[in-house]
Known about the structure:
four-stranded antiparallel sheet, single chain, mainly beta
Amino acid sequence: xxxxxxxxxxxxxxxxxxxxxxxxxxxxxxxxxxxxxxxxxxxxxxxxxxxxxxxxxxxxxxxxxxxxxxxxxxxxxxxxxxxxxxxxxxxxxxxxxxxxxxxxxxxxxxxxxxxxxxxxxxxxxxxxxxxxxxxxxxxxxxxxxxxxxxxxxxxxxxxxxxxxxxxxxxxxxxxxxxxxxxxxxxxxxxxxxxxxxxxxxxxxxxxxxxxxxxxxxxxxxxxxxxxxxxxxxxxxxxxxxxxxxxxxxxxxxxxxxxxxxxxxxxxxxxxxxxxxxxxxxxxxxxxxxxxxxxxxxxxxxxxxxxxxxxxxxxxxxxxxxxxxxxxxxxxxxxxxxxxxxxxxxxxxxxxxxxxxxxxxxxxxxxxxxx
Length: 370
């Protein structure tokens, strides 16, 4: 009897073990690990500023890589409406593009952030950046943990919920805000010197704690900071534009997001700095500007980036495709007609170029996931 019971228990155990192995095998078959990252670049979106205060002069160009064709006013083609006036920034976050349209004067209330589907170029929502009396004149956008943060000439940073696509809150930080960056749980916004929005706070970078959405302090920098770029290591580089009268030269300064202090000033005259990972590129500030490499660790400006015979007439913007490290250089040409964008590989050799609308500035990408 004991032998029979033991045999029954042994048989039952083997059946249960076999069933567990079968279930485990089925789970592995039904739940494969899926890589959801982008595989290819299907197209390139380019924000074109248009002439300053040229009503509805801004546009988004789209270049189809496979077809080798570009639509210089793609946003209007896809939406049957104009993009707007004085568009200034275009960035992708998650499954959406965010285009910052500054507008003209506060009383015109023609300021907004256009949210776009990168797969189709269709508008998802136009988030108005205005209250009952004035527009906020937004400038640049950055992202941190599912929120978007937009600087404005009105001196406020606005927080957008990227799911609801509404402005959650606004915090006053200082002068006419221009460039903005997010790193180490904080926002850094440049207080520029703007003739229409004069403010004594025009020589600092404001620091905002993201968790509480409150201003912590100002970091003193040279006059008229305009652009700010964060590195993965937590440093920030600030481009200041100086002033004409009395003359103060432009500068290039390094900040620490650990101590929230300025750590170095360089006698560089730069127009643009773009960083992707451990690579950096700059456009010098002397007309018409030169394209050079930038060492993030040492802040040293390197040799000319373009290594073939390609001539970029008026370099105006730099964008890097993180998927393949191709560098896209926006050429404003003569600032009055159509522009052009050149694509270079990471060694500085031209791969292709295409026509754009007037004064191209920044590129983002339509990725394929198959």
